[in-house]
Design goal:
Rossmann fold; alpha/beta; binds adenosine-5'-triphosphate; binds magnesium ion; 305 residues; 6-stranded mixed β-sheet
C-alpha cells in the first residue's frame, strides 16, 4: 500500500523527503529516515492522515479530514486558513492536549497518537511550549514569578529556578521588567512574559495560537521580533495567524480549508520583523519631529502677531 502522503512542501531538502513516491510504508520510512539523516534534518512533528471528529449530540463535526505534515527542527511555520478550518484543532493535537480520531502523530520521533493521557501530559510538559491570544498570566504575580511557575515541578533548586527564569526573561528583552506585574506591562511585554514562560522548560516546540491577535500592529511586530530571534537560535515554531502580514515573517505557510491542507509553501524571503519595527520607530520619531516643528512654527507665528 502506498499510504505515504507527499505534501507540496517545496523547501529544498524537504521536497526530497516529502515528495517520496514509495512502494510500501516500510520502504518509504526507511528511505525517508536515510535521507533525513543524510540531510542532517530532524523531524519534530510528523503527522500522517490525521483526522479529528467532534461529536456534539447527534451531529458530528469533522474538524480535520486527513492531514499529513512534517515539520523539521528549526522551522518557523505559519498555520493559516479561515475561521473553523481546523487550525486550533491541529494545534491541540500537535500540543498533546487532545487525541486524534485516527491517524498517526510522532513528536520528536515518538509516537504519541495512542499514548495514555498521563504519558501524554508528561510529554506535553517536557516538549511543548504554548502561547495563546490572551496571555493567561497570573495577574497578582510578577513577570519573574510567572516564568518560574512551570519550573516548580522540575525538581530544581529555588536558586536554579530563578536563574533560568531570569535568563529567559532577558532573552525576550524583559531583563529590566522582571518585578513588574502584568498590569504594569504593555500588551507586547505581557506576551513576551508568556513566551518566556512557555520556553523556560526548554521545549522542543513552541505552539502559538494567534499570539498577536489582541495586539496592535506595532506591538505585534515587537512579539514577532522576539519569535524570529528565538527561531534564529534554533527554536521550532508553529504559529496560527489570520494575518498575512504576520505570516510574512515566518519561513513556511501552511493553509487549511475545511479540515484539510490546501497550500504548503516556503516563504522565499521572510520579512525581518526587526527592520519593520525599527521603521515604525523611525516614522514615530519623524512624526514627533514634525509635530515639534509645527508647534514651534505656530508658537513663533503667535509671538510675531
Ligand atoms: N470541542 C469542540 N466540539 C465540537 N466542535 C468543535 C470543537 N472544537 C472545534 N470544533 C469545530 O471544529 C471545527 C474546527 O474548529 P477550530 O477551532 O479548529 O477552527 P479554527 O481554524 O481554529 O478557527 P478560528 O480561526 O475561528 O480560531 C469548527 O467547525 C468548530 O466549530
Ligand atoms: Mg482557532
Amino acid at each position: 500500500m502506498n499510504n505515504y502522503q507527499p505534501t507540496s512542501h517545496t523547501m529544498q531538502d524537504g521536497a526530497v523527503v516529502n515528495g517520496l513516491a514509495a512502494r510500501s510504508d516500510r520502504e518509504a520510512t526507511e528511505r525517508k529516515e536515510a535521507l533525513v539523516a543524510q540531510a542532517g534534518m530532524e523531524a519534530v512533528v510528523e503527522i500522517r492522515d490525521l483526522t479529528k471528529t467532534y461529536k456534539l449530540g447527534q451531529t458530528k463535526v469533522r474538524a480535520l479530514r486527513g492531514v499529513s505534515l512534517a515539520v523539521q527542527r528549526g522551522e518557523f511555520v505559519a498555520i493559516m486558513g479561515p475561521s473553523g478550518s481546523g487550525k486550533s484543532t491541529l494545534m491541540n493535537l500537535v500540543g498533546c492536549l487532545d487525541r486524534p480520531t485516527s491517524g498517526e502523530y510522532r513528536l520528536t520521533g515518538k509516537t504519541v497518537s495512542k499514548m495514555p493521557a498521563d504519558e501524554l501530559a508528561d510529554i506535553r510538559n517536557q516538549q511543548i511550549g504554548f502561547v495563546f491570544q490572551g496571555f493567561n498570566l497570573l495577574t497578582r504575580a510578577t513577570a519573574l514569578k510567572n516564568v518560574v511557575l512551570p519550573l516548580m515541578y522540575a525538581g530544581l533548586s529555588g536558586q536554579e529556578q530563578l536563574r533560568r527564569a531570569r535568563k529567559m526573561l532577558q532573552l525576550v528583552g524583559l531583563g529590566a521588567r522582571m518585578n513588574h506585574k502584568p498590569a504594569e506591562l504593555s500588551g507586547g511585554q505581557q506576551q513576551r512574559v508568556a513566551i518566556a514562560r512557555a520556553l523556560v522548560n526548554n521545549p522542543a516546540l513552541l505552539l502559538a495560537d494567534e499570539p498577536t491577535g489582541n495586539l496592535d500592529s506595532r506591538t505585534s511586530l515587537e512579539v514577532m521580533v522576539v519569535l524570529q530571534a528565538l527561531n534564529q537560535r534554533g527554536l521550532t515554531i508553529l504559529l496560527v495567524t489570520h494575518d498575512a502580514d504576520i505570516a510574512a515573517f515566518t519561513k513556511r505557510q501552511v493553509v487549511f480549508r475545511d479540515g484539510r491542507i490546501v497550500r504548503d509553501e516556503v516563504v522565499a524571503a521572510p520579512r525581518l520583523a526587526e527592520v519593520d519595527w525599527l521603521a515604525t520607530r523611525q516614522s514615530t520619531r519623524i512624526q514627533h519631529v514634525a509635530h515639534v516643528q509645527a508647534d514651534s512654527a505656530r508658537e513663533s507665528e503667535a509671538e510675531s502677531q
